[in-house]
Design brief:
Blueprint lengths: L1 H12 L5 H16 L4 H6 L1 E3 L5 E7 L7 E9 L5 E8 L8 E7 L10 E4 L5 E9 L5 E8 L7 E8 L10 E2 L6 E3 L4 E2 L5 E7 L7 E2 L4 E7 L7 E2 L9 E8 L5 E7 L1 E2 L7 E7 L10 E6 L6 E4 L5 E6 L9 E6 L8 E6 L7 E7 L5 E7 L4 E7 L2 H4 L4
Antiparallel strand pairs: 1-2, 2-28, 3-4, 4-5, 5-6, 7-8, 8-9, 9-10, 11-13, 12-13, 13-15, 14-19, 15-16, 17-18, 18-20, 20-21, 22-23, 23-24, 24-25, 26-27, 27-28
Length: about 375
């Protein structure tokens, strides 16, 4: 750049280039310099949050295909890789949406280029969920919309036997119109798999029907399909349940509330519980956690503590993104911390995971669902922050 500047100055002095021409060239050079980093260098650079004990990485943004990227789901594979899936396209209700997958190979810092791994012809795909079962099979559950709203959806799935390198053909998991999925399954103490699903109702894209219900599909060893539980009903509807098992008999799940997307002072995450090992579930009750009609995630850590990640807001804003931890089996949550708080932006659809090294990872989307972010921290970063 210095050589170019010297040449321009010489030619300006002898009158070979007018001043406006010099200005134009300099502007171009500034833009080129700003874009000198590769796409990978721009998006892979991890930068600390306000506090250095929480690291936040911008994984993908508008510089990659699909202006719309939402919501992200990920899992740790048995080889130590992280595998991420999201649905992309022109927008939430575009018919040109598909599921893309990307991998962070163990020991590396760059995610692979997102590739399409599910694309239903002439239909909109959404809400992928990635999970590796104890037998090594990687499951991908996702939603296919057969009408103008999510209430016209059904759940499909694919499996992989090679750590998500290749995928099977797709098959239907549910046939009931309005059935959808959001959270990863859990493995119960007896070895059964439990997948949280929901039945969404209504034709209004700006509101979730009050009769929207959550339920669970239970897959026993040796069976190829899941048996549905009873429906969890609640005051204004509930969806996207995330269950954890506390004891053999006692399970708890938190779900997103129904209703519209505006402010709601009595809008809370909905809590349901099972006292018989997850076979039957109570009606949903308002919890202590505000909810702006937004997805949350609930997981059990290796030490038995429970972690809830949610948007602590009752004004219709998906911000801040808050972590709450219970050390007494869901009785109390004295440890809470906002890990993202950028007014005017969103931190939406969080997915939480604890990897084998004990670190906690949270994926979420921001900037009008165009950017996928990855937060990493130790549990101590939350435990050291009192309520």
């Amino acid at each position: 750049m210095q050589r170019v500047l010297k040449l321009l100055c010489r030619r300006l002095l002898v009158g070979e280039i007018p001043i406006r021409g010099i200005i134009h060239v300099l502007l171009v050079m500034v833009n080129l310099q700003a874009g000198a980093l590769s796409v990978e260098d721009k998006v892979q650079k991890a930068e600390p949050a306000k506090d250095s004990d929480i690291l936040i990485e911008r994984v993908f943004g508008p510089e990659y295909p699909d202006p719309y990227k939402h919501p992200a789901s990920f899992t740790e594979l048995e080889n130590g890789d992280l595998y991420l899936a999201y649905y992309g396209g022109s927008g939430e209700y575009g018919d040109d949406t598909w599921v893309r997958g990307s991998r962070l190979v163990k020991g590396t810092t760059k995610w692979t280029k997102p590739e399409i791994i599910a694309d239903t012809p002439f239909r909109a795909d959404g809400n992928p969920v990635i999970w590796q079962a104890p037998d090594g099979i990687v499951w991908m559950f996702y939603v296919v919309r057969y009408g103008s709203t999510w209430a016209n959806s059904r759940i499909k799935f694919k499996v992989s036997h090679d750590n998500a390198q290749t995928w099977s053909d797709s098959d239907m998991m549910t046939w009931d119109e309005g059935t959808m999925v959001r959270s990863r399954p859990i493995v119960l103490n007896n070895g059964d798999y439990l997948l949280g699903v929901y039945h969404e109702t209504g034709t209004d894209r700006e509101s979730v029907g009050a009769d929207t219900t959550s339920f669970f599909l239970r897959k026993k060893k040796g069976e190829n399909s899941g048996t549905p539980t009873n429906r969890v009903r609640s005051r204004i509807g509930n969806l996207q349940p995330s269950p954890v098992q506390i004891t053999d008999d006692y399970l708890v799940a938190y779900s997103r509330r129904g209703g519209d997307y505006g402010p709601l002072k009595d809008g809370f995450l909905v809590r349901t519980e099972s006292r018989d090992g997850g076979f039957t579930w109570s009606d949903g009750q308002d919890s202590q956690f505000p909810n702006p009609n937004a997805s949350a995630d609930f997981i059990k850590l290796a030490n038995g503590h429970l972690l809830l990640v949610y948007n602590n807001n009752d004004q219709g804003e998906r911000m801040p993104l808050t972590i709450a931890i219970s050390t007494d089996g869901d009785k109390s949550y004295p440890h809470r911390r906002d890990i993202v708080n950028k007014p005017g932006d969103t931190a939406a659809y969080p997915t939480a995971l604890q990897t084998k090294d004990g670190k906690i990872h949270v994926m979420y989307t921001s900037e009008r669902r165009s950017v996928i972010n990855h937060a990493v921290f130790e549990e101590s970063a939350i435990l050291q922050t009192p309520k």
